[in-house]
Design brief:
heterodimer, A: 129 residues, alpha+beta, Sufe protein. Chain: A, 3-stranded antiparallel beta sheet, 6 helices, 21% strand, B: 404 residues, alpha/beta, Aspartate Aminotransferase, domain 2, Aspartate Aminotransferase, domain 1, 4-stranded antiparallel beta sheet, 38% helix, 13% strand
Chain lengths: 129, 404
């Protein structure tokens, strides 16, 4: 399995010691993306306070890269305003991880999708209130 | 620490005795076995014929002449299938009967033969991967030129009732080709008793070198060669013989034959230890393949709610492989598990354990520790595990598609 060689040290660190695992307390935004049939599902929960992401947690079913990108995206958005967070792309997640094997690029797309879905969900919820 | 190898369906290490037997044929005994004017050629020829006898012995062939050396089992399968098809060119309608979980070395030649007007008929298999004999029989007709069924599957280890299949083939007077790559050295295969007409062999799956294999062709079977040239191997496979490889295959066959009586029960014991450990220590682990009718060295489990590659990373002291080809560019799950009716979501959770000669009880115990810990850690991280605990049926949920 060539991913062994291709996973950066950073990816392995985040796989072994993922940051922010779980469900954010009093979450007001949830994003669930992916599909078990494709081998990955990401659930991102955020608690937005005063326009900032006060807390963010993830739960992920997926390969090492999927877990690492989830972990990394939570680190990147924590404390950011929604406007800042929405500009985080799969590319910036990949870069922060020191790159991903080509075939694992979709994992970073999934992380971006999960973040956007969570922010969208928060915005929808806050409009309803 | 060096990883403990547990992927013996992919390949096996060369037995040191095999390597020792091979070495002289690279250097001082380097002769071409076709050279008949000097001692170098003569010695190479003797070594090749000795190896041929040993391979014939392993599978119970009537005569060493029925063994044709090839570059490996892929070539042997190609020769059996394409060779049979082309030897029956005069027939208007031709079909070949097989099962959907054959190795690609069987399925892909069949696919390419479609262009030559040959129909492939797939016999149904049950959820363990075992052939449905009644359906299989119903597919055979006067235009069937070949039956190609594996002895054992490389992913799930399921054994096919080749003796019964062979008897049916013989009764209907249809040639039976058997890809026995995974079974040899692990389970007794006898071409006479099992009524096998052609049988594919690979050296590197039984502690021999890569790049060498053989096809058993029962006397009287007519095949068209797929490699033309100097007319080696009775015209069936042209090309200078890979003498060191052949010597290695012969030695591997000899060792396999003598050691199967002790190695088979030993592997079985290790396999049962691993299976029991998984049953006791990891919940929601589903066995893929047949509970008993399987290779003594194979286990394949779906560890629900956790993805296969992530488990492999957790068992990092072990060389393992997933049932799903999640690391391939296509991200498609295993066609074998799919054919068994295993849902994609579970196929992605599947892991194959392929035990071998060098594995010990201690290896199994270390693996179980890493597996138990890893699966638990990953499940605590898995949203699917939460859903399952809440009673949500993940198969019935609406999911997004992201792999176009």
């Amino acid at each position: 399995m060539d991913v062994w060689d291709e996973y950066s040290e950073k990816v392995m660190q985040h796989y072994e010691n993922p940051r922010n695992v779980g469900i954010a307390e009093n979450a007001n935004g949830v994003g669930v993306v992916g599909n078990p049939s494709c081998g990955d599902v990401m659930k991102l929960t955020i608690r937005v306070e005063d326009g900032k992401i006060a807390d963010v947690k993830f739960k992920t079913f997926g390969c090492g890269a999927a877990i690492a990108t989830s972990s990394m995206v939570t680190e990147m958005v924590k404390g950011k305003t929604l406007d800042e967070a929405i500009h985080i792309t799969n590319k910036s997640v990949m870069e922060a991880l020191g790159g991903l094997p080509k075939i694992k690029k979709h994992c970073s797309v999934l992380a971006e999708d999960a973040l956007r879905a969570a922010i969208e969900d928060y915005r929808k919820n806050s409009q309803e209130e | 620490m060096k990883q403990i190898y547990m992927d013996h369906h992919a390949t096996t290490p060369v037995d040191p005795r095999v390597l020792d037997a091979m070495l002289p044929y690279f250097t001082e005994q380097f002769g071409n076995s076709s050279s008949n004017t000097h001692e170098y050629g003569h010695k190479a020829r003797i070594a090749v014929e000795e190896a041929r006898s040993k391979v014939a012995d392993l599978i119970g062939a009537a005569s060493p002449d029925e063994i044709i050396f090839t570059s490996g089992a892929t070539e042997a399968d190609n020769l059996a299938i394409k060779g049979s098809a082309r030897a029956n060119r005069d027939k208007k309608k031709r079909n070949i009967v097989t099962i959907p979980i054959e190795h690609k070395a069987v399925l892909d030649p069949l696919k390419s033969l479609k262009k030559e007007g040959i129909e492939t008929r797939f016999a149904k298999i049950d959820s363990y991967g075992v052939i449905d004999i009644d359906h299989f029989k119903s597919l055979i007709d006067e235009n069937t030129i070949l039956i190609s069924i594996q002895a054992a599957n490389s992913e799930i280890g399921t054994l096919q009732p080749i003796n019964e299949i062979g008897a049916i083939a013989r009764e209907k007077d249809i040639h039976f080709h058997c890809d026995a790559v995974q079974a040899l050295g692990r389970k007794d295969v006898n071409v006479k008793q099992d009524h096998i007409d052609m049988l594919a062999i690979s050296a590197h799956k039984m502690y021999g070198p890569k790049g060498i294999g053989a096809l058993y062709i029962r006397k009287g079977i007519r095949l068209s060669p797929i490699m033309d040239g100097g007319g080696h191997e009775r015209g069936m496979r042209s090309g200078t013989l890979n003498v060191p490889g052949i010597v290695g295959l012969g030695k591997a066959a000899e060792i396999a034959k003598t050691e199967i009586a002790t190695e088979n029960p030993r592997l079985l014991e290790l396999r049962n230890r691993l299976a029991k450990g998984i049953k006791d220590r990891v919940d929601s682990a589903q066995l893929n393949g047949h509970p008993t009718q399987r290779l003594p060295n194979n286990l394949n489990y779906a560890f629900s709610y956790v993805e296969g590659e992530s488990i492999i990373l957790a068992c990092r002291d072990f060389a393992l492989s997933t049932g799903s080809a999640c690391t391939s560019a296509s991200l498609q799950s295993s066609y074998v598990l799919k054919a068994l009716g295993v849902p994609d979501s579970l196929a992605h959770c599947s892991l194959r354990f392929g035990l071998g000669k060098n594995n010990t009880e201690e290896h199994i115990d270390i693996l179980l520790d890493q597996l138990e810990k890893g699966v638990k850690r990953l499940r605590d991280m898995s949203p699917l595990y939460d859903m399952a605990k809440e009673g949500v049926d993940i198969e019935k949920m609406q999911w997004s598609d992201h792999h176009e």
